[in-house]
Each structure stands twice: as structure tokens, then as C-alpha cells.
Amino acid sequence: MLDIYDLYQKMESNKILLSFKGAITSELLTSILQIVETRMEELQDSNKERKKVFNILVEILQNLYHHIDDFDVEGTAEEVNNIKSSIFMISRLETEYKIVTGNYLLSENVEKLKSRIDHVNGLEKDELKQFYKETLNNGEMSLKGGGGLGFIDIARKSGQKLDYNFIKIDDKYSFFTLIVRVEKVKKDN
């Protein structure tokens, strides 16, 4: 039996503002963003922090929404729902916000995605800005309407390297985890 109080305590001790597992829809995106914004206002975070976290959240959640249907899934309804679901969590820690996402992807796409993130992580702030401009101006758009700006934009806005992991599930699927840290504004004493 699930001990809901134990789960509550774990979420509380990890300072989790919001946690979600399921299919990402456009309606859900709007709701998640409203909930997080309201919680940040209640916690009296600065406008600068709220704006920064909000903008990063928009990009992260749009990535999940636009890329979850990149593959067809066969199997039972439960298997399909599981693979088509994402997990999202945001924590408000003492010095940072931590945004964690997870989703399935085709194992054949792991190396390309890993290479893309590693490239972004290898760039300094000025190089990242230049790469963003180059990517924006190259005119190539994906089938999903993006130009490959997502990870670049997240890294620029967060000012941090992107932390990620891939877990091979089987020959067809892997599970991708992305962790984005957003430093809180230091308050003067």
C-alpha cells in the first residue's frame, strides 16, 4: 500500500513545488505554468527570479510537448501511455531552483541528442550567444517548427551547464533525464 504521508514528507524535504507524470497537452502546459507562477508569487520570489524560471519552464515544457510524439508506440494501452508520458518536477531549494524532466525517446536518437547537449555545454557565454544567433539565422526548421534553439536557449537563460542522463530501456527505447538549475538571486543582508 502506498504511504501517501511518506510521499508527502519526501516531497516536502526535497522542497518540491510541483511534480507531474503523464501526457503533456497544451492545456496542461498552461495550467503548470500558472501553478508555478502562483506558487512563486506566494513564496515572494523576486520578479527577476520568477521571470527567469518561467521563461526556462516554457522552453522545457514546450520541448516535452513537441517531441513526445516523435515516435509510434506499439503495445498494450498501458505500455503506450507509459512511453508517451513525461515526468516533470520543480524544486525550490535554498540557493537554486531545480527543474527535472524525463521522457522516453528512441534509442537511435540518443547519440545525436547527447552530441547536441555536449556541444551546448562546451560553449562559454559569448560563444553560446553567437551559436544562438547562427542557429536562429540558418533558417532550418524542424518538422516540429523549432530551429534547434531549445537547449541553447535553456543554457543561456539559466547560465548553467545542462545536466542529463540516458538510461537504455531496451533496443528500441531509452529514457532521457534533463536537469536544469537556476540560481536564485542573492539577497543582501
Largest sheet: 5 strands, antiparallel
SSE series: HEHHHEEHHHEE
Individual helix count: 7
Query: What overall form do the CA principal axes indicate?
Result: globular
Q: Roughly how many Å is the radius of gyration? A: 17 Å
Give a description of the structure.
With 189 residues, the chain is an alpha+beta fold. It has a domain at 4-106 and 162-183: Heat Shock Protein 90 (2-Layer Sandwich), CATH 3.30.565. It has 7 helices and 5 strands; from the N terminus they run H-E-H-H-H-E-E-H-H-H-E-E. A hairpin with a 4-residue loop joins strand 4 (163-168) and strand 5. Helix 3 runs antiparallel to helix 7 (150-158). The model has no long low-confidence stretch (mean pLDDT 86).
Structure keywords:
189 residues, alpha+beta, Heat Shock Protein 90, 22% strand
Secondary-structure map with pairings?
Layout: H1 4-13, E1 16-22, H2 26-42, H3 47-67, H4 77-83, E2 86-92, E3 96-106, H5 110-121, H6 125-137, H7 150-158, E4 163-168, E5 173-183
Antiparallel strand pairs: 1-2, 2-3, 3-5, 4-5
Helix pairs in contact: 2-3, 3-7, 6-7
Question: What's the short story on this structure?
Answer:
With 189 residues, the chain is an alpha+beta fold. It has helices spanning 4-13, 26-42, 47-67, 77-83, 110-121, 125-137, 150-158; strands spanning 16-22, 86-92, 96-106, 163-168, 173-183.
